[in-house]
């Protein structure tokens, strides 16, 4: 106490930082976004299911091959296609029954270093995941790329003089060897 002035020495009040503001009753409500309604969520889920169904129908009618499917799913802006399950995708393809599908998915699992159950239940996003360094997509391509032999009986039979020169996407055309050993189309 200051005797001469007759007042008490009181410490100065603590200064408040300019960053601290008194709490308002509705603090942060301006920054929150409105949550989507249940109708909007249902409509978005329906659109996603419809897009995946169109994708599977393209595989079913043969306009998409199983080797092209990962590129189609990743090339578009529709990331919902990556939620299609691999087993559903393979069994949807024409001429692929459960036994052949299991064999192909087992081949993918072996080459990718994963368990068969993991591959069977995995989604297309698992296949193109960048953390696998392309190992899974290469296993997929190895399982589903078209295979062909150069000629019937290869490698044990000799090269025939005449053989079908058809290839993927080309109509069957007979080719013959000329005297010089070159191939010539017979038309």
Automatic annotation (TrEMBL):
This is Uncharacterized protein. It comes from the Bacteria. Residues 1-39, 165-187 are annotated as: Disordered. Residues 1-13 have a biased composition (Basic and acidic residues).
């Amino acid at each position: 106490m200051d005797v001469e002035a007759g007042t008490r020495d009181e410490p100065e009040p603590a200064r408040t930082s300019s960053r601290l503001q008194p709490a308002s009753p509705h603090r942060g409500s301006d920054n929150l976004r409105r949550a989507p309604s249940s109708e909007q969520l249902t409509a978005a889920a329906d659109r996603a299911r419809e897009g995946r169904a169109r994708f599977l129908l393209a595989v079913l009618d043969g306009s998409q091959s199983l080797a092209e499917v990962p590129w189609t799913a990743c090339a578009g802006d529709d990331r919902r296609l990556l939620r299609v399950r691999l087993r559903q995708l393979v069994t949807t393809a024409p001429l692929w029954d459960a036994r052949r599908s299991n064999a192909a998915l087992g081949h993918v699992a072996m080459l990718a270093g994963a368990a068969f159950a993991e591959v069977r239940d995995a989604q297309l996003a698992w296949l193109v995941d960048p953390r696998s360094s392309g190992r899974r997509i290469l296993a997929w391509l190895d399982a589903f790329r078209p295979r062909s032999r150069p000629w019937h009986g290869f490698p044990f039979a000799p090269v025939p003089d005449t053989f079908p020169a058809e290839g993927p996407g080309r109509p069957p055309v007979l080719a013959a060897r000329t005297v010089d050993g070159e191939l010539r189309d017979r038309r």
